[in-house]
Amino acid sequence: MVLYLSYRAVHFLSLSCNDKEQYMEKAIVVNSGLENTNFTEEELVRRAQSDLTYFKGLYLLWVTRVYQFIYARTGDVQDAEDLTSQTFLKACEAFPRYKHKGHFSAWLFTIARNEVNLHFRHNSSRQLDIEHADRELPKIDMLDHISTEIEMEQLRILIAELSEDEQELLFLRYVAEMKFGDIAIVVRRKEDTVKKSLYRLQARLQKAMEEDHE
Amino acid sequence: MNNAISQTFEDKLRAAMNDQLPMPREAFVAQLGVELTHRAQAPRSRQIFPGLNGRRILQWAVLTLLILSLLATTILGPQNIVAAMQRLLGYIPGVGFVEAERILVEPVSLEREGIIVTIEDLVATSDETILILHMENLPVEEAASYCQELRATGAEEVCLPSAPSYTLKLDEGEGYTGDLVRGQGYSENQGKEWFTSLVFPPLPPATEQVTFIIMDGLPNMYQGMPLQDWEFVLQLQPVDEGDQQLVYEVEDQNMRETILSPMHSTTDESADSATIAQPIDLQEEVDFKLSAFALSDNLLTLNIDILWERVEWHSVEIIDFLNTQGVPKGGPLPHHLTLTDASGMQVPLVLNTFESRGTESGSQKASFTLSADISGLELVSPLTLTLQNLQVEAYFAPEARSHFLFTPETTFQAGDCEPFDHVLDIYDYSIELQEVCSMESESLLLGGGGGGGGEPNTTPPPSPQYGLEVRIAAPEEVLTIDVSDSCTQTMDNCAGGGPQGRFVSEGTLISTSLYYEEPRWPIDFVLSYIHFQLSGPWSVEFDLP
């Protein structure tokens, strides 16, 4: 069982971002530890509601995105692993009470988000603030980096200067690759509001980038 | 490198955020997988209420709350009865009812240099602590001039919006940071007023006093301005459990169920370049409930609970949202409910909600409370509560969305329009996608924002240079439709959707897609959202106690 899970995880993790998107459509889950079957997320949710062992399939489907979402907010591997574990253990525990309406990822990321918020409350520290971000981000070496990388670096710095709420919206959209409707559920706002907020954020960031270039 | 430069800004954003994110360790993923397997195979605890499903439990919970509301109002008397009852039961404006353990003894205000900050309420439950915050007379003009002075001195970069932090501190020194998630503060009165509800972790049992601290400025202000920090000592009192546990019988006839009649749907067969999704219809049963309760001799409190089965309905409103603009804070919100007695006398109803919206997105439930002063009125039973209209926001799942490919036949210049000619029915409404128009910066006609309505806002967006406008004809019951670029991976050349709405001056619906680069053809327009008004009436009859 361990070997199998590792193989699936490694395979998934080795995929590019776009490939992941396609891969998400066909999750693979172990049934009773013996048979492999292809299932969509919908099918996994449906089966997991009668047989919780199928929750593993949902776990494999989302573990990378949840981990990266949490890492993006905490900037620490150990914290990211701890909080990812807490997220999935709580999700597994709560899953029998979960009523599926097509928003599993929104439900899962709501748990992840709560875990991160609790973590920051208990540790009385702010989320990856600007100072922290400056330390985390690699310094630009003009000799070794091509212009695109410099641009990426500038963009990362601009993102680090955004408010926590704004950063979270970007993380949910571009790290967790969530749909607007699901983000709206996670952050408890209207979908239209989320769309507009993200649009304005992008506009601001792009304007700032253009001004930097000038 | 060239490829990276030619990517859309959204691609760059995605790349910048993901390039340095590590993958989880293989051993960690495997170990957690094993742990989850063990958890999944462990025996589960029994259901607490066998035979009762979630919906049934919810119905009982709602009914119980309503009964408690009825009783509390009857006991407390007419003066400020609604507010008192709501506070006693843990009614949080804009949030709903919660099981309160402790509440604020009384609102606490602090005035400094004309700015008034009021803690309207604090409700402590076993799960969380909710604080309602209201700020008045925020010096927005001074804030603007403060920034202008900074700019004049060349220190523009110092002119940063303040980012207030909210802390709840216990006497022994422990502090909790507030979470703005619920309530999402909003401004009124041209930014001079600010309302929000803050959510904190639960307080220790029997907490009698907490200190609420605002640091790093106030909303709508700038960093460095005076009056950055505020502190309030809040006295709490326990909620008397005895009051909450009293029982009052509510007769069955006070509650009625209303079933929406099914609506029809057809698809457009003639559109060559369109992929019409499966008919969006309401042939299945719609579980729609409306409850009304009468309270006390002098004051009537009505609690309207609407539950629906349609997953795509994200919110249902009893408020006439299009006419809420310009209503001052505390002023009566326009709504679609009327109350009349058997003699035909109409009783004015006041909506008690703190915010204009009573629905939490995705909950498939909306709750509203209303009250009416009936002192001195000789009302004749039965009373009839009538809901004239409902406003519904529906977001369709990807598989239920209709797609329309668009490629202009000629060079598409700013101001050009080409016919689109797609007709489809959604629910009971005939929707005609008439034409697509191209715009650049100043010629962008942007709507008044969420919900549509009002005069168009002709202010161009700061950065996108291109826009496509889909002009739509639809019955007046349709308030907003989102027909915008789907922004798929294969046609990732859009900057996201733009404003949608019905513009008074245009008399038509407009849905906009905004771009940072000149759009590449074809554009895959997707219909994903519709905001519409259902016409009633739906009525409930009940007798006064």
Output the number of helix runs of chain B.
7
| Average of the residue pLDDT scores of chain A | 69
Rg of chain A, Å, rounded: 19 Å
Overall SS class of chain B:
alpha+beta
Order of helices and strands of chain A: HHEEHHHHHHHHH
Number of helices of chain A: 11
Give the overall form of chain A. Answer: elongated
Q: How many domain modules of chain B? A: 3
CATH architecture of the domain at 127-214 in chain A: Orthogonal Bundle
Stretches of chain B where pLDDT is under 50 for at least 5 consecutive residues are 1-7, 44-97, 241-272, 277-288, 442-464
Spatial order of strands in the largest sheet of chain A: 1-2
Q: Largest beta sheet of chain B, briefly?
A: 10 strands, antiparallel
N- to C-terminal separation of chain B? 77 Å
The total strand number of chain B stands at: 30
Low-pLDDT residue intervals, each spanning 5 or more residues of chain A: 1-37, 125-145
The name of the CATH superfamily of the domain at 127-214 in chain A reads Winged helix-like DNA-binding domain superfamily/Winged helix DNA-binding domain
CATH topology of the domain at 127-214 in chain A: Arc Repressor Mutant, subunit A
The structure class of chain A reads mainly alpha
Please give a structural write-up.
The complex is a heterodimer of chains A (214) and B (545). Chain A is mainly alpha-helical. Chain A has a domain at 127-214: Winged helix-like DNA-binding domain superfamily/Winged helix DNA-binding domain (Arc Repressor Mutant, subunit A, Orthogonal Bundle). In chain A, 71% of the residues lie in helices and 5% in strands. Chain A has a two-stranded antiparallel ribbon with strand order 1-2. In chain A, α4 runs antiparallel to α5 and α10 (180-187) packs across α11. Chain A is elongated, with a radius of gyration of 19 Å. The N and C termini of chain A lie far apart (56 Å). Chain B is α+β, with helices and mostly antiparallel strands. Helices cover 15% and strands 36% of the residues of chain B. Chain B has helices at residues 2-6, 9-18, 26-41, 54-76, 81-88, 140-152, 241-245, and strands at 91-92, 96-97, 102-104, 108-112, 115-124, 129-136, 165-170, 175-177, 186-188, 193-200, 209-215, 230-238, 255-257, 274-275, 289-291, 299-307, 313-317, 337-340, 346-347, 350-351, 365-373, 383-395, 402-406, 417-426, 429-440, 466-473, 478-485, 497-503, 508-515, 523-542. Residues 1-7, 44-97, 241-272, 277-288 and 442-464 of chain B have low confidence and may be disordered. Classes of the chains: A mainly alpha (214), B alpha+beta (545). At the A-B interface, α1, α2, α4, α5 and α6 of A face α2, α3, β8 and β28 of B.
